[in-house]
Amino acid sequence: MKIGILSDTHNEFARARRAAELLQAHGAEVLIHCGDISEPELIPCIAIMPCYFTFGNHDADMVPHLERAIAAAQGISLGWGAEIELDGKRIAVAHGHTHIDVRRLLATKPDYLLSGHLHFPVVRQQDGVRRICPGALHRADEYTVAILDPVTGELQFIRVRD
């Protein structure tokens, strides 16, 4: 199974839709959005396959509306951060804007920690956990998303063009 990872869409409706379609074309079977969705109307733009969502700092005022939109799109809300299991791998997801959420998830020693907030792509090891930030689809030098095979660990960053 390949996982499409995106973050920091900040109401970039057309770009987010292109990103989801691009990830699907690269074989993604599930999408994980790492926060800063901003408006509930963005949810249906990317919900073209099973989706997980976490909230970021720009989502705070919209959480009830986002929760309803996620449910309507048959997505799964991970709230402010949670751990899921896909393809036998433990995957933690948080936006990354609060150290409390990140430390709480790192403490469980998942296989991966997916996060956003940085607006540029990053992959690194932290406390024995592979941390991945896909980049952003708003206010970035290059708009990027990522695709991960959690079993093999193969990771690819993909540029999303306007």
UniProtKB/TrEMBL annotation:
<dbReference type="InterPro" id="IPR029052">
    <property type="entry name" value="Metallo-depent_PP-like"/>
</dbReference>
<dbReference type="Pfam" id="PF12850">
    <property type="entry name" value="Metallophos_2"/>
</dbReference>
<protein>
    <submittedName>
        <fullName>Phosphodiesterase</fullName>
    </submittedName>
</protein>
<feature type="domain" description="Calcineurin-like phosphoesterase">
    <location>
        <begin position="1"/>
        <end position="150"/>
    </location>
</feature>
<comment type="similarity">
    <text>Belongs to the metallophosphoesterase superfamily. YfcE family.</text>
</comment>
<dbReference type="InterPro" id="IPR024654">
    <property type="entry name" value="Calcineurin-like_PHP_lpxH"/>
</dbReference>
<dbReference type="InterPro" id="IPR053193">
    <property type="entry name" value="MetalloPDE_YfcE-like"/>
</dbReference>
